[in-house]
Structure formats: C-alpha cells, structure tokens
Specification:
Rossmann fold; transferase; Methyltransf_25; methyltransferase; methyltransferase activity; Methyltransferase domain-containing protein
Length: 268
C-alpha cells in the first residue's frame, strides 16, 4: 500500500472510527463478529492486520484474546490505543507498519488473524499474493484467518443508489462485473475491487484451505437508505432483519453479492 492510502486514513481517522456505528455498516460489524465467534479458537494470540481505529481489536480483547494491532495509519493506531486503554484493557503490541512488510513478524505465531482492509488497497496482484502467503506463514498450523475483499458485484448493487451517475457510461456498468482498480483521482483513494471468484482463487493460490466465506451485508446489501430509515422509524423490524442477516451471511444466495466479502480460511 502506498503513501496515498496512508495519507487518506490519517486524514480520515475519525471518520473510519464512526463508520461502523452507522446502522447500515453495523450489519458488516455484526456479521464479522458472528464469524469470529463461530470460527476463531476460543483463546489464543490474534493479530489484527489493518486494524484501523481498533473496533475489532477492542472486542477481541474483551473476549480475553491476546491481541496485536498492525496498522498503516499512525493516527488510527493512536485512536485505537486510546480507546483500548480508556476501558482498562491492554494490547500486546501496536505496530505502525505496512501490511506489505509482514516479513517482520515471527512465523507460526498467531492462533487467529484478521486481514481486513489491506486487500482493499493493494492494486498489484503479486503483492496481494505475497501478503496472503506471509499471513499464512505467521499463522499457526490449524489456525484461522478472516480475509476481506471489496466485492465488485456488491458494489455494483450499492452504486445504484450511492453513485448512479457513473453509470451514464454503459461501460462502467459492465466494468463492475469484473475486478477493478482505481487511483485516488477516480475513487476515495487507491482501491481494488475483486469478485468472489477471483478473491477465492487468490486465497487458495497462497496456500490456504477455505473453510467458508460470507457476504458481510447479507440480504440487506445495497439498500442502505432503507435500512437506515427502518433503524430510525421501527427498531423492532430493524433489529429482526439485522439478526437474520447476520445469521445468514454465509448462505450462497447472499454471499456473492455484498460489498464486503469475508473469506474464512485455515492453515492445514
């Protein structure tokens, strides 16, 4: 990941902190926690690669895991440390480092790994594969990792309401049926969108065994305005939909067409 990505997250550290508080983004947060509870070992050492402001690290610490945070943005890492220490918890380490440099970490060390964020911003396929191989190296045998990609197919759905003007060019519609890369002049920063087929292939080529995969937004993907409206006007309905969406995030009829693709993998 480049300085462009680092600068974006430094400048938007507080925005990233609040993102998962949004009633729509809360679906992603709760689905991720559901996968952690379902697949992670109940105890052990975890590294959160691309930890951002520490939303997941904080929850893992509450569950008594030993947690190391690795984050490109110093400002986001500072927020994470203040939030964690503010509730009386303590992480093992705070590493301000690029995910491209996982070679600094010890082999076969972690019982579980979150790799959520870096794969969104690595435009070069060879570099992505290397990050995946390094993640495999530092994971203990039988360890579990959750690896996240941004999914073109789900972003196409979301784009109907979020950025529909770009679809005045028919080629832009077709473009989201495949992987895409954008620089900072054409997106919020340097960003890579995969498809489930391509993401699963990358992960397998790196040597992981795929245990499952999920669409973080489940059947609520692409209808952010409606979800937020329900949150404000009928919390019973919102809460019911949220519960079922989280529980069904791995179902094949939903998981291929959400904005965030979570791949659950194992080192065998």
């Amino acid at each position: 990941m480049s300085e462009v990505v680092r600068n974006y997250y430094d400048e938007n550290a507080k925005v990233e902190l609040e993102r998962l508080n949004n009633p729509y983004s809360s679906i992603e947060f709760n689905s991720t926690m559901h996968l952690i509870d379902k697949y992670f070992p109940k105890t052990g050492e975890v590294i959160d690669i691309g930890s951002g402001p520490g939303r997941y690290s904080l929850e893992l610490l509450k569950k008594k895991y030993s947690v190391t945070l690795l984050e490109l943005s110093e400002k986001e890492l500072d927020i994470a440390k203040k939030r964690i220490e503010g509730v009386g918890l303590k992480a093992e380490k705070y590493l301000c480092e690029n995910a491209l440099n996982l070679n600094i970490l010890e082999s076969d060390k972690y019982d579980a790994i979150l790799l959520m964020g870096p794969m969104y911003h690595i435009l070069d396929k060879e570099q992505r594969i290397n990050v995946l191989k390094e993640t495999l190296r530092i994971l203990k045998k039988q360890g579990i990792a959750i690896i996240s990609y941004l999914n073109s197919w789900g972003i196409l759905k979301a784009g109907v309401t979020e950025f529909s003007s770009v679809f005045k060019d028919l080629n832009n519609v077709y473009g989201y049926l495949d992987e895409q890369s954008f620089d900072e002049n054409n997106s919020f920063t340097e960003v890579y969108f995969s498809t489930p087929v391509q993401a699963l292939d990358e992960v397998e080529k790196a040597g992981f065994h795929i245990a499952s995969y999920a669409g973080a937004e489940s059947f609520l993907s692409g209808i952010e305005e409606g979800v937020i409206k329900l949150y404000k006007e009928d919390r019973v309905v919102y809460d019911n939909l949220l519960k079922v969406a989280v529980e069904s995030c791995e179902l094949p009829q939903y998981r291929d067409a959400t904005e965030h693709l979570h791949i659950v993998v194992k080192k065998i």
